[in-house]
Specification:
The structure holds two protein chains of two kinds.
Chain A: H1 7-19, H2 24-37, E1 59-66, E2 69-76, H3 79-92, H4 97-102, H5 107-110, H6 114-118, H7 125-142
Antiparallel strand pairs in A: 1-2
Helix pairs in contact in A: 1-3, 2-3, 3-7
Chain B: H1 13-18, E1 26-27, E2 30-31, E3 33-34, H2 45-57, H3 68-88, E4 96-99, H4 102-117, E5 123-127, H5 136-145, E6 148-152, H6 162-168, E7 173-179, H7 191-200, E8 204-208, H8 220-223, E9 227-231, E10 242-246, H9 248-253, E11 264-267, E12 272-274, H10 288-304, H11 306-324, E13 330-333, E14 342-347, H12 352-360, E15 364-365, E16 367-369, H13 374-379, E17 385-389, H14 396-413
Parallel strand pairs in B: 3-15, 5-6, 5-7, 7-8, 8-9
Antiparallel strand pairs in B: 1-2, 4-10, 9-10, 11-12, 13-14, 14-17, 16-17
Helix pairs in contact in B: 2-10, 3-10, 4-5, 11-14, 12-14
Classes of the chains: A mainly alpha, B alpha/beta.
Chain lengths: 149, 414
């Protein structure tokens, strides 16, 4: 993430990047490239506990809480899913719980990836978003007034 | 007149495609290439027309009404039963029970015949290649009755290991429930042999015909199975209609599945007597429109001829095997000697889900995942496959497009 940009601004940046592609092929090629560059998650995190339910592929998501902000790491055995996760991390990682909970994530629709939201059973992007927000909610409850340490 | 002269040697696939309006649509800006026929086939115009015609002209509840519409609807509904009886070679129309689909047919047998006849310690045999629909009902029954579920393993080619079947078959075996054609591998199982061996130890045999009914010539009398279930929507017919065939004496001995209208003879608040076959198992208003349209689907198949369809699909299958194996890193899962219309494959470093999404992006519909056969995927130690499955309207050109798209998938994901 770029800490100088808000969630909305990062979403706009992604939308602008996708506007450069005229074809679906190019969009997916870009998403696959994003997936390839997502750092590999350490095997010790690939547990059932960290697995996101509702995905045809395996998706693991972990969240760390530091200085009142959440930092996500994730991985999947499917490349397109990895690319989608990488965008979610770019938008949501390093934000406060409130920012994450309130994020509308309109960019998913704007870049034409709504099908991945609708077909929760096979793709699970919605499950990932939900899980990321759950983590935010959990930390918000645990730490209602974010401490800066 | 020599009739054979008037019949073209090969099918006019272009003309057949014209009968399927959905094949004219585009997906992601490209002509649809539909290769998910093992999940459900597309519907020819005559099936769609049949549904519209019913609701437009003679929609009525059947069997009880004495008005004209009810008579017409009843007659047409029952005509489908006769057509199905002939289509699968049943002995009588009373042996044809309309269900929602294969799953309901199997469950009906598990809940009625099974509950009545399976006792503690009895054994039920299935196989590793079963669809979940032919696993779960028996697991539930075995748990309830303290019975034992035994499994015929398969070899690396995806064929049943019949020597293992012989070993687990015995006096405790009360039921053998086997898939005729594997939905995930396309393997055709030697059901006639399996049935004869089961009967020799006094076991009853149920055949899951979900995948076979559209491709193979089905003759339940010759096969000598006790139950045979299949779904209309995999035979170019509508969803929500299936058939359970059962031998008359078995069906008669079985308690009803569900209680309600249609299935009763007489009801007092103290006791109900049940209707005769097949109505005993058809409680409530059935799916009239779709049962009627199912007849059109069977007529569509018969008008072309099952043998010709099979020959065409077999050509596609051989061509698909040949061309797909040229793709680097691609491995076909399921190479049974006797196989029809399904190619399951995996590609090195490519998750089936990625393959599915990228093919869809090219307007190509395949299925990806475990195909509701998780034990089978475990057998091959894979999370799932991508599966292309063929119907009469598919062409070699479409397979070329599939191969080209897959070459691109390999390039993108490597």
């Amino acid at each position: 993430m770029n800490p100088d940009l808000s969630i909305m601004e990062t979403e706009k940046e992604i939308i602008a990047e996708f506007a450069l592609f005229d074809s679906w092929d190019d969009k997916y090629e870009y998403i696959i490239d994003l997936g390839k560059t997502l750092p590999v998650l350490d095997a010790k995190y690939k547990t059932d506990e960290n697995r996101v339910r509702g995905c045809q592929s395996s998706v693991w998501l972990v969240a760390d809480y530091k200085d009142g902000k959440l930092f996500y790491q994730a991985d999947s055995d499917a490349m397109i899913v990895k690319g989608l996760i990488s965008m979610l991390i770019r938008v949501l990682s390093g934000r406060t719980a409130d920012e994450i909970i309130e994020a509308k994530l309109d960019f998913i629709r704007e870049i034409g990836m709504t099908t991945h939201l609708a077909q929760t059973r096979s793709n699970g992007l919605l499950s990932m978003v939900k899980q990321m927000k759950h983590y935010a909610l959990a930390y918000k409850i645990k730490d209602p007034v974010p401490s800066k340490n | 007149m020599n009739i054979s002269l008037t019949i073209p040697k090969t099918l006019d696939i272009a003309a057949i495609r014209q009968e399927f309006p959905i094949l004219n649509r585009e997906v992601k800006g490209r002509p649809l290439i539909y290769l998910d026929n093992a999940a459900t086939t597309q519907k020819p115009q005559q099936v769609i027309d049949s549904i519209i015609h019913y609701y437009t002209n003679y929609n009525a509840n059947i069997h009880r009404g004495i008005h004209t519409l009810a008579e017409e609807a009843t007659a047409d509904f029952e005509k489908t039963r006769d057509v199905v009886k002939t289509f699968i070679g049943a002995g009588s129309r009373e042996e044809i029970i309309f269900t929602k689909g294969t799953t309901e047919g199997i469950n009906l047998v598990a809940y009625t015949w099974g509950r009545k006849n399976i006792k503690a310690g009895d054994e039920i045999i299935i196989s590793t290649m079963e669809h979940h629909s032919n696993i779960v009902p028996w697991q539930i029954l075995c748990e309830e009755k303290d019975a034992v579920l035994k499994v015929i393993p398969i070899n690396d080619a995806g064929e049943l290991m019949l020597n293992e079947y012989e070993k687990i078959l015995g006096p405790k075996t009360k039921l053998v429930s086997i898939v005729h054609v594997s939905n995930a591998l396309g393997t055709v199982n030697p059901v006639k042999e399996i049935i004869a061996q089961a009967h020799a130890v006094g076991a009853v045999v149920m055949i899951d015909g979900a995948q076979s009914a559209v491709h193979l010539d089905i003759n339940v009398s010759d096969m000598d199975c006790d139950f045979f279930a299949f779904s209309a929507h995999k035979l170019y017919g509508p969803t929500g209609v299936g058939v359970l065939y059962g031998k008359r004496e078995l069906l008669e001995s079985m308690p009803p599945f569900q209680g309600g209208g249609e299935m009763i003879k007489e009801v007092t608040l103290k006791k109900t007597t049940f209707n005769d076959l097949p109505y005993k198992f058809e409680a409530g208003t059935p799916n009239i429109a779709d049962v009627i349209a199912f007849k059109s689907a069977i007529q569509f198949i018969l008008s072309i001829g099952k043998e010709k369809i099979r020959k065409h699909e077999q050509e596609l299958l051989e061509y698909a095997h040949l061309e797909l194996e040229k793709i680097p890193g691609l491995r076909i899962v399921g190479k049974a000697k006797d196989k029809i219309s399904v190619v399951s494959f995996i590609i090195e470093n490519a998750h089936p889900q990625d393959i599915g999404i990228l093919l869809d992006n090219r307007g190509i519909a395949v299925r990806t995942g475990h195909h509701c056969a998780q034990p089978l995927m475990d057998r091959f130690s894979i999370p799932g496959t991508a599966r292309a499955s063929f119907a009469v309207y598919n062409t070699k050109y479409e397979l070329d497009e599939l191969v080209n798209a897959l070459k691109r998938v390999v390039k993108l994901l490597s």
